[in-house]
Amino acid sequence: MAGIAKKSFDSADEVRTPDKARIEVVDLGSAKAMRMTAQPGWRWSESVKPVVNTDSCRARHIGTVAAGSLHVRHDDGTEQDLTPGTAYVIEPGHDAWVTSTEPFVAFEFESATAETYAKPS
User: Fold this and answer.
1) Could you identify which of 4, 20, 51, 107 might form a hypothetical disulfide with 39, taking C-beta atoms 3.0 to 4.6 angstroms apart as the criterion?
2) What is the 3-state secondary structure (H, E, C) of the chain?
3) Phi/psi-derived region of residue 114, left when phi > 0, alpha when psi is between -120 and 50, beta in every other case
4) What CA–CA distance (Å, rounded) separates 34 from 90?
């Protein structure tokens, strides 16, 4: 096995397109990563919830924001704004929506989430 794996999100192994969003997944062998681009007006509860049929997002997100901003409201009542340059961990049980006038772009590195996010359950 090679000591370095590299792939471009521009030629992703898998692309998912829930309403107002694009999820690009690369398989790096021992890990998967995703780039999520969500357009202004995107909200998890309106765009992804109908696909996965859960009350809130059940994915664990670990990533960093490249552009735009996102507001996250966790089921426990905590809320955070994610902006460019921010690294984050969002535990399962939340809703989120784009708050910027530009697309929200994030890179995520939780393999299980990259494999299943926005796929029908």
Assistant:
1) 20
2) CCCCCCCCHHHCCEEECCCCEEEEEEECCCCEEEEEEECCCCEHHHHCHHHHCCCCECCCEEEEEEECCEEEEECCCCEEEECCCCEEEECCCEEEEECCCCCEEEEECCHHHHHHCCCCC
3) alpha
4) 15
Residue in the structure block whose two tokens are 């397109």: 17
Q: How confident is the model at residue 26 (pLDDT cuts 50, 70, 90)?
A: very high
pLDDT tens digit string along 37-81?
999 999 999 999 999 999 999 999 999 999 999 999 999 999 999
Query: What is the gyration radius of the CA atoms in the chain, in angstroms?
Result: 14
One-letter amino acid identity for 108?
E
Look up residue 40 and give its amino acid: P
pLDDT at 52: 95
Spatial strand order of the sheet with 104-108 comes to 14-16, 21-27, 32-38, 104-108, 61-67, 87-90
Residue for token pair 């939340």 = 94
